[in-house]
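The records we work with from here on pair a chain with its fold. The integers have meaning only within a learned vocabulary of local backbone shapes. A complete example follows; check for yourself that the lines match position by position.

:::
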Amino acid sequence: MKTFEVPTREKVNENNQAIFDKLKSNLGFVPNLYATFAHNETALGDYLNLSGRKTTLSGKEKEVVNLVVSQVNNCQYCLSAHTAIGKMNGFTDEQILEIRTGSVSFDSKLNALAQFVKNATENRSKPDEKYVEALFETGYNEANLVDIIMLIGDKFITNLIYGSTKIPIDFPIAPELEQVNI
């Protein structure tokens, strides 16, 4: 398999250098996945605009989507990154592992979200109606549904970037579900 180089600041165009500088200022580093987008002149900025768009979802809801999609797609990079971000959003290690299964016992609304996301991701854009209905029954609305779908697409992009490049993971490695008791 081809080895993909993670571009450094010096190897990207001026526009991407400015984005690298901003990421380093905000995050303390440029995650390898983001840097990989910079192989293209505009993809990093385009992706950051998508992922940073205004949304009706809370930080916790976004992390439920990110974790479930990444688990279904078996993306170790995104699982590792979103385990760290999930903790920053107040989830415990145990809750994160449970969320990754697509079932959430500690919150009925997040459970409906996790089940919908898992079903939609596994069925490749054709969720079972019962999961759509469960979202609305627990308080989600049409705007939320659009934001959930946008975020599923966002996560598919990063899962596919990692799956295609196998760049080094620069977050603490998330445990495999088989290695833990849930």
User: Anything to note?
Assistant: The chain has a mean pLDDT of 96.
